[in-house]
Amino acid sequence: MIPILNLTRQYELLKTQINDALIRVAASGHYILGPEVKAFEAEMAQYLGVKHVIGCANGTDALFLALKALRIGDGDEVITTPFSYMATSESIARAGAKPVFIDIEPDTMNFDVSLLEAALTPNTKAILPVHIFGQAANMDEVKRFAQAHKLAIIEDCAQAIGSEFKGQKVGTIGEIGCFSFFPSKNLGCLGDGGMCTTNDDDLAERLRMLRVHGSRQRYYHEESGLNSRLDEIQAAVLRVKLKHIDEWNHARQAVASRYDELLKPLAEWVKTPYRHSDGQHVFHQYTLQLQGPDAAKLRADVQQKLQAAGIQSMIYYPVPLYRQQTHADLNLNPQDYPLCEDLSDRVFSLPMFPEMTAEEQQQVADALAQVLKTVPVPV
Ligand SMILES: Cc1ncc(COP(=O)(O)O)c(C=O)c1O
Predict the structure, then answer these.
(1) Ligand 1 mean position, distance from CA 158 (Å)
(2) Are 288 and 301 within one domain?
(3) What is the pLDDT of residues 205-230, one digit of tens each?
(4) 317 preceded by cis ω (within 30°)?
């Protein structure tokens, strides 16, 4: 069986350092917001080239904390993508604001910045780009539009740590960057973890205050916040792993290039991931688009046959955010998002992790070729 990802290989490679880190924290008697978190925040700030890093409990909280820090809430609107994980728009709604979705681009599958203008209202307060699958959204245009209309930018970088747009790391371009250290992410901890990043001193202070119940001074609470802290254990593990993130992202890029080559003979059936020339795609996912009018039906069949051949695949994301029941109150019309509708029917992701071997990739490509060659070439 070739799984969509294999986390134990990475642990095996760093076993001694990770185990030492776990024992160090256990023996220290300091488990929450202590020296490991402080050191991790400093090391991460240096890696990203950003002034402040604020660890928190997970990527979902990072988004919520960012919105709260920017005082976005009731009556406000935030423009974002409908092609993302639920946490993106859920956080906007949780803050009391309204997610306003714009359709996506067919190639990068990031939101289409040419649609920002049409989504703008007097209530718009922020833009929330998601760097989907590890490739940056068009941040030049996001920045230009935000400046012109005095909007804040919150970057959802959960899938894109280390990715760049025109030489600048994602998470350092907007007002606040939000990251997840969920185990499957390019930089994952041994449980839940997340962080916010910012170059703004006041926002950094607000984020630090909001993550501990809205308190700057113990037992004095100026506004309601969260209990959302990064554990010492997770910070200690992340310090070990951070040293390897560039090497792992390069390995992911090599895996992606090898897939591109192997899948060339299948070009009539599947479109391989597009890379725009302005950035660094860090391949959190390697996502294919099935071609042809019957892609949705074909996809279920392909997945099943791949599974039978021992290859796991996943669909990110089968249900766009405007179709989620939790957003039913927004009364959105799927026909307003034709590209997202279309792509959510065609995408599927292949196994992708830095330690994947060339032999394993060959097996994936062979299995996919076998499956696809049993179906007619799409017209
Ligand atoms: C795009 C995106 N945003 C936000 C999140 C939320 O992160 P977490 O699972 O750490 O809460 C995730 C990952 O799960 C994600 O993929």
Answers:
(1) 5
(2) yes
(3) 999 999 999 999 999 999 999 999 99
(4) yes
| 251 and 214 part of one domain | no
pTM for this model (two decimals): 0.98
Same domain, 234 and 249: no
| Domain membership flag for residue 1 | no
Q: What is the CATH number of the domain that holds 350?
A: 3.90.1150.10
| Ligand 1 atom index nearest CA of 194 | 10
The reply to whether 123 and 177 lie within a common domain is: yes
Q: How many residues does the chain have?
A: 379
Residue 378 pLDDT > 90: no
35-40: average pLDDT? 98
Q: How many CB atoms lie within 10 A of CB 130?
A: 28
141 alpha carbon – ligand 1 mean position (Å): 24
pLDDT level of residue 297 (50, 70, 90 thresholds): confident
Ligand 1 pocket, 130 CB below 6 A? yes
Ligand 1 binding pocket includes 158 (Cβ within 6 Å): yes
Range of the domain at 185: 8-102+109-242
Q: What is the mean pLDDT of residues 32-55?
A: 98
pLDDT band at 106 (very low <50, low <70, confident <90, very high): very high
Gap between the Cα atoms of 220 and 210, Å rounded: 12
Check pocket membership of 87 for ligand 1, CB cut-off 6 A.
Answer: yes
The whole-chain average pLDDT of the chain stands at: 97
The CB of 142 under 6 Å from ligand 1? The reply is: no
Query: Which residue CA neighbors atom 12 of ligand 1 most closely?
Result: 158
Final residue before a domain boundary, out of 213, 242, 271: 242
pLDDT of the residue at 292: 85
CA-to-CA dists, residue 376 to 266, 347, 379, angstroms = 12, 18, 9
What does the alpha-carbon distance between residue 347 and residue 211 come to, in Å, rounded to a whole number? 36
Atom of ligand 1 nearest to the CA of 284: 16
Of 142, 136, 174, the closest CA to residue 282 belongs to 136
And the tokens for 131?
């760097």
Q: What is the pLDDT of residue 167?
A: 96
